[in-house]
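Bench log, entry 3. Co-assembly request; chain sequences pasted below exactly as received.
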Amino acid sequence: MPFDTAVGSPAPVVWDLGLLAEPSQLAIARRRVAETSRQFRLDDARTSDLVLAVNEALTNAMRHGRPDRIGRIRIKALATPERLTFAICDYGVFIEPREQLDPLSSGGRGFHLMSQLVDEVTVHRDTNGTTVTLSKERT
Amino acid sequence: MTTFYVLADDELIDEIAVITIGGELDYAVSPQLRERMLAQIAAGHRRLLLDFSTVTFIDSTAIGVIVGAVARLRASGDGAVAVVCGDEPAPGAAAEDLSSVRKIFQIAGVDAAVALCGSREEALSHLSAAG
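Structure output for the full assembly:
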């Protein structure tokens, strides 16, 4: 699975979910990410930043990526004592451009938002798909 | 569980089209925002007020809709969009939705394209002057 090869980290997995690639699922994912972030003792502001960043990655995967054969993308939570990471995986190879776009463009802001909201963003793409990881330090 | 949002009937105040949405503005809801904004523009209204004072979450797709509408107005003459958003999270916002609308507009780098106002009165005043 692209997810496992992409992350390749010893960080323990907190949970690993298949999420239907439908917009109505975003609210469910946000609540789950918020719950995990609070359990990790992130404060409210850092929690909301992480929730929005994950929402953006999931939205990108739904809009531009490709789900598995039964219509799911994957989201996984991993935690070390210092760092909480969410990894979002789809089976397409689209990467949103990182460059600054026209301020009046209607799209292309997701990646910029993610990079502003979390401590680290990584993108791994191979023939199996695309994995975006979003990490926030505890403090 | 699905996205929670509230969409009120549009109003017209001194030729300013007022669109009120509350709750969570994400990819599931932004098409409805787009439809409402484009309908007002198609009806000839060039000044739009978005009352987001009870919005608890906003993402880049909703911001893209708003900025796209601003671009459409500018491409065909004058026009202005003002967004009502407090500095603080909306009352009743869940802990996971505490990011203020204003903050997200600023991070997205589009706070210059729309007027971010603290109240509906301020937004109406801004748009009246723009007209």
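Chain B has four helices and seven strands. Strands of chain B lie at 5-7, 11-13, 16-25, 47-51, 55-58, 80-84, 115-117.
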